[in-house]
Amino acid sequence: MDQRDAILTRLLDLHPKKIDLSLGRTEWLLAEMGHPERRLPPIIHVAGTNGKGSTLAFLRAILEAAGQRAHVYTSPHLLRFNERIRLAGTLVDDARLQKALEDCERANGQRPVTFFEITTVAAFTLFAEEPADWLLLETGLGGRYDSTNVIESPKATIITSISRDHPEFLGDTIEKIAYEKAGILKRGAPAIIGFQQHDGARDVLEREARRVGAPLSIAGEDFHIREENGRFVYEDERGLLDLPLPRLPGRHQQANAAGAIAALRAVAPHIGAEHIEAGLTRAEWPARLQLLSRGRVADLVPPGSEVWLDGGHNDDGGRVLAEAMAQFEEKNARPLVFVCGAQVTKDIRALIKHFVGLAGEVVAVPVEGEHKSWPPEEIAALACAEGMRSAAAQSVEEALAIIAQRSYAVPPRILIAGSLYLAAGVLALNGSVIE
Question: What is the pTM of this model?
Answer without folding.
Answer: 0.95
